[in-house]
Amino acid sequence: KASGANGVVCSAWEIDQIKEACGSDFMVVVPGIRPKGAAVNDQKRIMTPSEAAAKGADYIVVGRPITQVDDMKAAAEAVLAELAGE
Fold it and tell me: What's this model's pTM, rounded to 2 decimal places?
């Protein structure tokens, strides 16, 4: 932030520390998001969409759980429903 960055890409496990150090307005983009029941694949530091949102993620990145399933639309809708608390 001191160098002029508006945010970072980081694991969901670092959201708290980054927001504490840089402020709530510092953008955090979080990959490695895995909906409940999705395969972990090669990711080691995962979190569900709702957990990452609760920690303060500004943007989440959900890749293979959406792009590598037969019904991508249903998978994306399930992520949105989880984020909405449904």
Answer: 0.86
The candidate with the shortest Cα–Cα distance to 36, out of 26, 46, 24, is: 46
Q: Is residue 72 pLDDT above 90, yes or no?
A: yes
DSSP state of 86: -
How many beta carbons lie within 10 A of that of residue 81, not counting itself? 12
- Per-residue model confidence as pLDDT tens digits over 17-44: 999 999 999 999 999 999 988 888 888 8
Say how far residue 28 (Cα) sits from the centre of its chain. 9
Question: What does the block give as tokens for 41?
Answer: 């694949």
**Residues 6+ positions from 63 with CB-CB distance below 8 Å:** 31
How many CB atoms sit inside 10 A of residue 40's CB?
Answer: 11
